[in-house]
TrEMBL record:
InterPro entries: Rad60/SUMO-like_dom, Ubiquitin-like_dom, Ubiquitin-like_domsf. PROSITE patterns: UBIQUITIN_2 (PS50053). Transmembrane segments: none annotated. SUPFAM superfamilies: Ubiquitin-like (SSF54236). It holds the Pfam family Rad60-SLD. This is Ubiquitin-like domain-containing protein. Residues 31-77 form the Ubiquitin-like domain. It comes from Drosophila rhopaloa (Fruit fly).
Length: 81
């Protein structure tokens, strides 16, 4: 089966938003964290991704989370001391 590309939106509490294209069968966390970090000059390790109240785990994919095109992923930036 060919890879399918879908669109997700990353949205942070401070109003930053970013459109990302993802493959439906590839792990999301690292890809989305790196895209967001690059766009907004933050450390990927400081980011927590949440969908429907649940933290996105490293192995989660678009398909495993039953996401739909144009779904919104919440981005939390953890304070690093």
């Amino acid at each position: 089966m060919a890879h399918q590309s879908k669109v997700l939106w990353l949205l942070s509490i401070d109003g930053h938003h970013l459109q990302c294209h993802v493959n439906t069968d590839q792990p999301l966390a690292d890809h989305l964290k790196n895209k967001y970090a690059e766009a907004f000059d933050v450390s990927p390790s400081s980011l927590i991704l949440v969908f429907d109240g649940e933290k996105i785990q490293d192995q989660d994919t678009f398909d495993s989370l039953a996401l739909e095109d144009d779904d919104i992923i919440d981005v939390l930036v953890a304070a690093i001391h």
